[in-house]
Design goal:
This protein is of the alpha+beta class and 270 residues long. β4 and β5 form a beta hairpin. It starts with 11 loop residues before the first helix and ends in a 15-residue tail after the last helix.
Length: 270
């Protein structure tokens, strides 16, 4: 029986081919292993992620020194487990509006406080966007939605006053107004340096600071002097304004919605 010629295995080019083949096989197996592990980690994170948090990201690349604003920022949903305390979220973004970037910011990557020239709060006035104003109005427990109103919420402002016939009238004054502060508690867990306790220590307040245009500030000043102001909370994603008009006592009953028929009963005639 003729034995195979094994001398060919001793040739350098054959050994080189075998080495490349083995290296390629090892590379393919490594890539497959890493992809499998990545899928396992991703599946594990998806199982644990729970709620999604909206974090603030630049809409496009921003150079150092840029002022962050509603125009150059966007929101991106991130699993709650991956959100760090340094990230700026949609809920506390208004606190940082107007601050300057101390570093270049890449589009789509979460904005974190150390990237700002003044990490954390600056003077309260520096958080107000240009062309806007902050005005403080006095509220009572009912008007502040029993203490549930928080900085970052959005509200509608209603005014109750008497007309020329001394009849009470209620009408909407402003829609979708941003709450900048309740008492001296600003958005997020940070507080201004007032010397009154630490974060979260404020449980009651009788003033609310709002972000408005100069024209709306005028209207609020007049409304406070002429009648009673009530804050009505709205969903932060609700941007639809309803033209309610005025409501008087004599039109209250006629403006009430018709009673609904009990479930299972038919209304009308056949």
């Amino acid at each position: 029986m003729k034995l195979p010629n094994l001398s060919i295995l001793g040739k350098p080019w054959v050994l080189l081919v075998i080495a490349f083949a083995l290296g390629g096989t090892a590379t393919v197996m490594t890539i497959s292993y890493l992809r499998t592990k990545e899928a396992q980690v991703r599946a594990s994170l998806m199982a644990k992620e729970g709620a999604m948090i909206q974090v603030v990201v630049p809409s496009y690349n921003l150079p150092k020194g840029s002022r962050i604003s509603y125009d150059n920022m966007a929101v991106r949903e991130v699993p709650e487990a991956l959100v760090s305390g340094l990230m700026i979220t949609a809920n506390n973004f208004s606190t940082y509006v107007g601050q300057e970037l101390g570093y270049d910011a890449e589009a789509g990557k979460p904005l974190v406080r150390p990237m700002l020239r003044f990490a954390g709060l600056k003077d309260f006035s520096d958080t107000i966007p240009e062309s806007m104003r902050a005005i403080t109005i006095r509220v009572d427990e009912l008007n502040s939605i029993s203490g549930m109103l928080r900085p970052g919420d959005r509200i509608d402002i209603f005014v109750k006053m008497s007309d020329q016939g001394s009849q009470d009238v209620v009408f909407p004054l402003l829609y979708n107004v941003a709450v900048k502060a309740t008492g001296q508690m600003v958005e997020g867990e940070e507080q201004l340096a007032t010397g009154q306790g630490g974060p979260g220590s404020q449980t009651t307040y009788n003033t609310v600071t709002l972000e408005v245009t100069p024209k709306d500030a005028q209207r609020l000043v007049l409304a406070q002097a002429a009648g009673k102001i009530t804050a009505v909370m709205r969903n932060s994603d609700d941007y639809v304004d309803i033209d309610l008009g005025q409501l008087r006592k004599d039109t209250l009953l006629t403006a009430a919605p018709a009673p609904m028929a009990p479930t299972g009963e038919m209304t009308g005639t056949i």
